[in-house]
Design goal:
9-stranded antiparallel sheet; UGlyAH_Cupin_dom; mainly beta; RmlC-like_jellyroll; Jelly Rolls
Length: 113
């Protein structure tokens, strides 16, 4: 079938934390339900994090839709984006900065390497 429903009962959740050298504040825990992976270059799923702050560096293109929570994405040149429930956005390759989860945040994502 050429249709994929995001149903958490169909995939195992992956639980991770940011690498110690990237962690800036808190003790965030990531939960990821990766529903699709194509050739190691395309991914789609749901990601959730508890509060904390860490550095990010994107080599990939990522579309996101915030399902719940509040996060702050800050670029290395100081641009600040507050992300909240209902927001949709794209992070382009080359973005560097920080991701701060203020309130536990969940997002749907589609990633293209």
């Amino acid at each position: 079938m050429k249709f994929l429903r995001f149903d958490p009962s169909t995939v195992a959740v992956e639980i991770e934390k940011p690498a110690a050298e990237k962690l800036l504040a808190g003790d965030p825990e990531f939960r990821t339900w990766n529903y699709e992976e194509v050739d190691g270059t395309r991914f789609a799923g749901v990601w959730e994090s508890t509060p904390g702050k860490w550095t990010v560096s994107y080599d990939e293109w990522e579309f996101c839709h915030i399902l719940k929570g509040v996060s702050i994405l800050t670029s290395e040149d100081g641009e600040v984006e507050t992300l909240k429930t209902g927001d949709s956005f794209v992070i382009r390759p080359g973005f560097k900065g920080t991701w701060e989860v203020v309130e536990t945040t969940a997002k749907e994502y589609v990633i293209q390497l």
